[in-house]
Amino acid sequence: MPGKPVDLNANSFDRFIARAGLPVLVDFWADWCGPCKMMAPIFQQVAAEMSTRVRFAKVDTEANSQVSMRHHIKGIPSLILFKNGAEVARTSGAMEAHALKRWLASHGIQ
């Protein structure tokens, strides 16, 4: 559903990234991670605000360790921005909404 982050897993990740039609921002997170829980509503808010410019997705690193390992996730929350199926930027750590929007803008997403 547009405007809401999509939950991805090992079976859906590559297909979603390749066929999204827009840049995709993926939040790698885990249920036990305090900063991840803090950032979840912010990620959802920004997803709703920017749904026409970028797709938002989430990967639970505990349930999908193979996806996390393949993308060399070392700390969470980690965000990876994909364009045309390829990684173009990444950052780690929780962010406020304005910082997340500024980070996306620095990578060409206004």
Main sheet attributes: strand count, strand direction, barrel closure: 5 strands, mixed
Assembly level:
single chain
**Rg from C-alpha positions?**
12 Å
What are the segments in which pLDDT stays under 50 over at least 5 consecutive residues? none
Strand order of the largest sheet: 1-3-2-4-5
Strand content: 25-35%
Number of strands: 5
> Percent helix among the residues?
25-40%
Pairing-aware structural class of the strands and helices? alpha/beta
Mean pLDDT: 95
Helix/strand order: EHEHEHEEH
Overall spatial form: globular
How many separate helices?
Answer: 4
Distance between the termini: 21 Å
Structure description:
The protein is of the alpha/beta class. It contains 4 helices and 5 strands, in the order E-H-E-H-E-H-E-E-H. A 5-stranded mixed beta sheet has the order 1-3-2-4-5, sandwiched between helices. Strand 4 (78-83) and strand 5 form a beta hairpin. It starts with 5 loop residues before the first strand and ends in a 5-residue tail after the last helix.
